[in-house]
Amino acid sequence: MKVTWLGQAGLLFRTEKTTLLVDPYFTDSAAEIAVPRKMPVDPNLWEIKPDLLLCTHVHIDHYDPDTVKHFVNEATEVTVLSPASVWEKIRGFGGKNNYVRVAPGVIWTHEDVEVEVVPAVHSDDFAVGFVIRHAGKNYYVTGDTLYSKDVVWAIPEDVDVVFLPINGKGNNMNATDAAKFAAEIGAKLAIPVHFGMLDDVDPKCFVYENALIPEIYKETNL
Questions:
Q1: Is the pTM of this model over 0.85?
Q2: Which is nearest to 45 in space by CA: 102, 6, 91?
Q3: pLDDT tens-place string over residues 95-111
Q4: For residues 209 and 181, is the Cβ–Cβ distance under 8 A?
């Protein structure tokens, strides 16, 4: 699996058959209600052609209409997996796209990828995470969440890679709790996200035996 961190919590997964985009935030929309972005967008990101678009929850740095409408519109045929809070809004983009309202327990298969929806504990009551399976590996995207035993118990065994927030604000885990969470789910590799775009969090504060600090816009084989 080829994986690229897109800044904030955005991720791009590529297999031989599937391009999967998670929580893209390529504009400066958050500046209107919070703070401006600190990392410039790579203009090449607008060229992505996703087969699947996953949104974990409705907050603007995860579901940004100004970003999403570029990838999901009247001219596209994308399968969109999103919880109720996002689904109510995103399906208004129309077109031939397949807007799927999901909740924990749902499984969706596309070509060589399987996506399982798992719970999150966040200020959006409908927030979810996703476990993406490909070629015998499990890639767990927590979305925005606190360290919760209810979430831990819901996560399937054998997490090969987890992508998790470390900023400690806005109902997210801080770096210490994120490390405990990664250990409790038995993640073989933990990759911190949700830092640096709208804050000054140093990812080096995330201390985990098998951690990988991502480099923005750099593709990695995982």
A1: yes
A2: 6
A3: 999 999 999 999 999 99
A4: no
